[in-house]
């Protein structure tokens, strides 16, 4: 058992250039304590008559200042927790802070650079590397990804669903067993045999989350996301299994409704945007108080799910994310205050070991046999589990007689034998159901036949009308776009004319350009759109995409794409990907060369052995055991080549992971582009209707 307080870290997000410095300072006091001082600028502090404090000081295990990189954050925060999970303890890392302070960046990572990948992908990579190294146990790993929004849980990993709204995802509910353990019904556990599979699942979840979100419903700032890695391990031949769960939690934004500025009582009274974070705080307060017997875990789904992580069987770590500029001073202080309370909570992590069910079955079998023997001793007859054919026939007869007997006093007496009593009940139920069903069947058949035909005709007509309306809308949007393009061209023309009036050479080239734009190149665009749609289709879970667009919609998509900021990111990543591919290719060739060289050197050694053996036949005493400097040299050469082979091979493996990650990032950016377009398109359509 490991008893320790929750570890609490702080991370300060890099400030933009315009945001003023000097608001806070970091002081590394000792190895395991750092303090963060937040200095309230005079103009803000002056606004409060009853609070003259100008600086606030908070202690953390460690503070990651603006320059801290993702690998450093992983090494100090996540790696120790991952190690515990590998050893069989539960672990939780959660990020808490206002929207925009870097929670998602810290937990999942940035969307652009490979080096920006966050705690989840790095932890997966670390865990799978460790598992590979350890051949003394058999491991299985699963992942799950839960989003909680408005007290409802959603499974982000359900592959059967193509979400377009959060409600399309399967709803997850909480169940409590008699031992008060929490179980999540409908949350799928997906097996992930290696890093690549696990990363694919992470991206699937993130994509589902992104698609489910609309500009009207920015769920991500108000929902909690819990990515869980489940590890189980067993030594071959042993009956005990170790199971552990590692929760990586991206909480909802902690901002409060009333932004009033800095002031003691105002801060504590301000209301949360997010009710479940309010309940989280209540749980934390209750846990931090000594002698509290009741902890209100059940008030919200999130506190129920994280129950073990808070005051229970778990190694828990919190990261307070801070966006420390002048406007956010009050939120930052409240985040730090929350962190200070969390730091008081003690958890007791225990090894999660349980006995193999097979061993249990063997024990139970023995117990059953013992009981049977005892029963036989008491009743004087040996009993099998099943009734014999004869016994059943006799019971059927008894039942029949009982049912037909009109005497209200008649009874069905089968003796003190549970098997016989059960048999009678089942038999009677069957008889009853049978007579009920045959009655209902007759009735319903008649009604159904009449309904069917009339519904069919109505549906067809409605569908046609809908399509017609949709096409009308599309044409209108396209006409609008065309008008805008035309106006742009006219403006350009007008300017040109103003600069060089009479120079019709320019005019001509311009009009040629416009022509070109309308005809052949738009075909090229279309082709590109198709390519794009193909590439999106490669991810099986995103299949609901562009293929279904009408031609007009595709045209509009091309123009939209051209002007969208994300296309630059996609382009950049494409270039990077090309580079990495080339690097991987040349590295692969080099690895092959080295392998050939090693084989060649080995061949030479064998050759020398043969020669030596031949010489030994001629002069037996001397040659065989003599030290051979040439062979020795060949061996050192081989060793060196092997070393370089290993480094290159490892680099190649790293490149592979990076390439896969980049590919996933690109797919994600493309899906986002597509989604932005859908939103824009539907907005245009509504505008036109109005
Ligand atoms: P939150 O999830 O808390 O709302 P995000 O993680 O989405 O905040 O961060 C908001 C923005 O700031 C994102 O664009 C993110 O890339 C950027 N960001 C956050 N933390 C860092 C950091 N440590 N380094 C660089 N960029 C960051
Ligand atoms: Mg976020």
From TrEMBL:
ATP binds at residues 97-104. InterPro entries: KIF6/9_C, Kinesin-like_fam, Kinesin_motor_CS, Kinesin_motor_dom, Kinesin_motor_dom_sf, P-loop_NTPase. Belongs to the TRAFAC class myosin-kinesin ATPase superfamily. Kinesin family. It is found in: Cytoplasm, Cytoskeleton. Keywords: ATP-binding, Cytoplasm, Cytoskeleton, Microtubule, Motor protein, Nucleotide-binding. One of its GO terms (cellular component) is microtubule. It comes from Tinamus guttatus. One of its GO terms (biological process) is microtubule-based movement. Residues 5-345 form the Kinesin motor domain. The keyword ATP-binding applies. PROSITE patterns: KINESIN_MOTOR_1, KINESIN_MOTOR_2. One of its GO terms (molecular function) is microtubule binding. This is Kinesin-like protein. It comes from the Eukaryota. It holds the Pfam family Kinesin. Its main location: cytoplasm. The keyword Nucleotide-binding applies.
């Amino acid at each position: 058992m490991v008893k320790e307080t929750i570890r609490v870290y702080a991370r300060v997000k890099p400030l933009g250039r315009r945001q003023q410095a000097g608001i806070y300072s970091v002081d590394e006091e000792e190895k395991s304590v750092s303090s963060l001082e937040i200095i309230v600028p005079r103009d803000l502090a002056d606004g409060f008559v009853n609070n003259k404090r100008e600086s606030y000081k908070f202690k953390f295990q460690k503070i990651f200042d603006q320059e801290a990189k993702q690998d450093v954050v992983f090494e100090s925060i996540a790696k120790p927790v991952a190690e515990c999970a590998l050893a069989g303890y539960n672990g939780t890392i959660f990020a808490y802070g206002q929207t925009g302070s870097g929670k998602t960046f810290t937990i999942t990572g940035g969307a652009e650079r490979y080096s920006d990948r966050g705690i989840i992908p790095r932890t997966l990579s670390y865990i799978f590397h460790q598992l590979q190294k350890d051949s003394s146990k058999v491991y299985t790993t699963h992942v799950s990804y839960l989003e909680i929004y408005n007290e409802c849980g959603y499974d982000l990993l359900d592959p059967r669903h193509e979400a377009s709204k959060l409600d399309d995802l399967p709803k997850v509910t909480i169940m409590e067993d008699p031992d008060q353990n929490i179980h999540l019904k409908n949350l799928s556990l997906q097996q992930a045999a290696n890093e690549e599979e696990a990363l694919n699942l992470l991206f699937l979840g993130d994509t589902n989350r992104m698609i489910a979100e609309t500009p009207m419903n920015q769920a991500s700032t108000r929902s909690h996301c819990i990515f869980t890695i489940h590890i189980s391990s067993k030594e071959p031949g042993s009956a005990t299994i170790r199971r552990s769960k590692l929760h990586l939690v991206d909480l909802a934004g902690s901002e409060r409704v009333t932004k009033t500025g800095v002031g003691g009582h105002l801060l504590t009274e301000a209301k949360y945007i997010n009710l479940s974070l309010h309940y989280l705080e209540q749980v934390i307060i209750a846990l931090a108080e000594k002698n509290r017997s009741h902890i209100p875990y059940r008030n919200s789904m999130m506190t129920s799910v994280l129950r073990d992580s808070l005051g229970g069987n778990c190694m828990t770590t919190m990261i307070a994310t801070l966006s420390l500029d002048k406007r956010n001073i009050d939120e930052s202080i409240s985040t730090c205050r929350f962190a200070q309370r969390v730091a008081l909570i003690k958890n007791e992590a225990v090894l999660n070991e349980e006995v193999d069910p097979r061993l249990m079955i063997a024990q139970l079998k023995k117990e059953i046999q013992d009981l049977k023997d005892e029963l036989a001793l008491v009743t004087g007859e040996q009993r099998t589990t099943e009734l014999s054919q004869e016994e059943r026939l006799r019971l059927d007869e008894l039942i029949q007689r009982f049912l037909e007997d009109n005497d209200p006093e008649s009874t069905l007496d089968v003796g003190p034998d549970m098997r016989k009593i059960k048999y009678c009940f089942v038999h009677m139920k069957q008889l009853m159901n049978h007579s009920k069903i045959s009655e209902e069947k007759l009735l319903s058949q008649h009604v159904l036949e009449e309904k069917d035909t009339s519904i069919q005709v109505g549906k067809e007509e409605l569908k046609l009308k809908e399509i017609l309306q949709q096409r009308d809308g599309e044409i209108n949007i396209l006409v609008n776009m065309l008008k805008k393009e035309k106006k742009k061209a006219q403006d350009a023309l007008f300017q040109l004319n103003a600069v060089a009036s009479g120079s019709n050479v320019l005019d001509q080239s311009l009009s040629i350009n416009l022509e070109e734009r309308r005809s052949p190149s738009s075909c090229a665009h279309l082709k590109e759109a198709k390519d794009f749609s193909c590439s999106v289709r490669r991810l099986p879970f995103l299949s609901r995409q562009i293929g279904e667009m009408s031609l007009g919609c595709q045209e509009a998509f091309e123009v939209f794409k051209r002007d969208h900021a994300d296309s630059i990111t996609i382009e950049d990543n494409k270039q990077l990907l090309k580079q990495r591919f080339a690097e991987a290719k040349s590295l692969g060739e080099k690895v092959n060369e080295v392998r050939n060289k090693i084989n060649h050197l080995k061949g030479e050694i064998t050759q020398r052995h043969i020669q030596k053996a031949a010489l030994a036949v001629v002069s037996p005493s001397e040659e065989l055991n003599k030290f051979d400097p040439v062979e020795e040299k060949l061996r050192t050469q081989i060793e060196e080549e092997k070393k370089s082979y290993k480094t290159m091979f490892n680099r190649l493996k790293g490149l592979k992971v990076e390439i896969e990650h980049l590919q996933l990032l690109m797919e994600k950016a493309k899906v986002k582009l597509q989604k932005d377009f859908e939103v824009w398109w539907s907005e245009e359509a509504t505008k036109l209707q109005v």
